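Q: What does the assembled structure look like for these inputs?
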Amino acid sequence: MTWETVIFYAAALITVVSAVVVAFSRKLMSAGFALLATFGGVAMLYGLLGASFLAATQVLLYIGGILVLLIFAIVLTKDMDRARISMTGVQKILGAVIAIVLAATLWISFSGTEWLVEGAPDWPGAGPKGIGNLFMTDYILPFEAISVLLLIALLGAAYMVRRKS
Amino acid sequence: MIGIIHYTIVSGLLFVIGLTTVMVRKNAIAILMGVELILNASALNFVAFSRFGGSGGPGEVTALFVVVLAVAEAAVALAIVLNYYKVLGSANVDEADLMKG
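A:
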């Protein structure tokens, strides 16, 4: 067992277990805080894959941005702690059945596939410089498109929550 | 030895759990959390495949696009949720039937 294996299994365990908590916790706030561990675990996996810039972005944007936004929304909607947040009965069973069938399908297709690439690569990731170069050369059109999208999202969100006069 | 299959399995599990969250939850904010899990699973897959496939760059760039899309989606969706919470007094998706004909 190398250190990489140990860290991978630790990160995978954190990610999956906290994601299960997100799915089935009784309180919405606990689900929000479990999401913190999920995002952190995914950031660890990114780091393990050599994508250190992406790991930092994950921590900054997901944990510092989206999660804070979600928790704000939780505390802004009243008596979330007592409200029933899960479906009941038949819908829950149907959801579980679909999830299990999908998981089995994924498992069968993963284990049946002969992966052409084996073993961990040992070169460093792209790094901030490489990513910046890619953004400004090969991916300039999606980069500009996504900046327009961000502007639209910003305007849309501000428009929707404005005080009506 | 950690190969691509390990990352794919983690990502697949994350996707299935996220989908279960979307299906099982009643509260709109909890459903958004499920969507975030699904987006994380897909971004992880992009990075893993790109990395094991030969170069890390394109996968990381795509994952960054996924992150930005997730941020935009979360901002707009939460604005909608807060708005209909103001109207309905509840954030449950099965009570949001104002547009039912």
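Chain A has two domains: 1-85, 126-165.
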